[in-house]
From TrEMBL:
This is 3-oxoacyl-[acyl-carrier-protein] reductase. SMART domains: PKS_KR. InterPro entries: KR_dom, NAD(P)-bd_dom_sf, Sc_DH/Rdtase_CS, SDR_fam. SUPFAM superfamilies: NAD(P)-binding Rossmann-fold domains. Belongs to the short-chain dehydrogenases/reductases (SDR) family. It comes from Actinomadura miaoliensis. PANTHER family: 3-OXOACYL-[ACYL-CARRIER-PROTEIN] REDUCTASE FABG (PTHR42760:SF96), SHORT-CHAIN DEHYDROGENASES/REDUCTASES FAMILY MEMBER (PTHR42760). Pfam families: adh_short_C2. CDD domains: BKR_SDR_c. NCBIfam families: PRK12826.1-2.
Amino acid sequence: MTGGNRGIGLAVARELSAAGDAVAVTYRSGEPPEGLFGVRCDVTSMEDVDAAFGKVEAEQGPVQVLVANAGITDDTLLAIMSEESFTSVLDTNLTGAYRVAKRAVKGMMRKRGGRIVLVSSVVGLLGSAGQSNYAASKAGLVGFARSLARELGSRNITVNVVAPGFVDTDMTAALSEDQQSAIKKAIPLGRVAQPDEVAKAVRFLASDDAAYITGAVIPVDGGLGMGH
């Protein structure tokens, strides 16, 4: 699990741990979550990724489930967006997923089985003004996942995407009341998601119950992105 020390990532890590899985989380800053095996890792560095996998494999054995959740935002309108703002978001959110998936599939192919779940966003399907970099990175995960699903299916490795909508995290808590109210009005269910609601979808895709699901995009967005 990349980006597993807060928000959605931490909820997923705790959900998988509660289901009996041996869970390892990567984090770029701060401290590892209490009670979980944590490894510091910057997904923009292949060296960091390789070292992190080595530590996880030494502690817990081969990685059977990969959840790629690490992500950043750097919102601004395209007309004033720097190239660094665009490429840095893609490097973490999309190329970071490539790096961890590439490292993970080696062991999965040897074992002839595995689960890869990429955490995208409703923004990747719906679009959002001021987030062209973030939306592009999250939309790219869908094409990436579906290509991998075709590559790896014969090895019994499934690759799926979870696309959360607005979730009750530190990021949304920073929005004003007016902004939060406008968001809720746009959501058919009229509320934001709780992190554990996203985590349960990830847990399902990582489980044996989802053995015949691959290349799917599962929205957890209260209906916000319907039709996409």
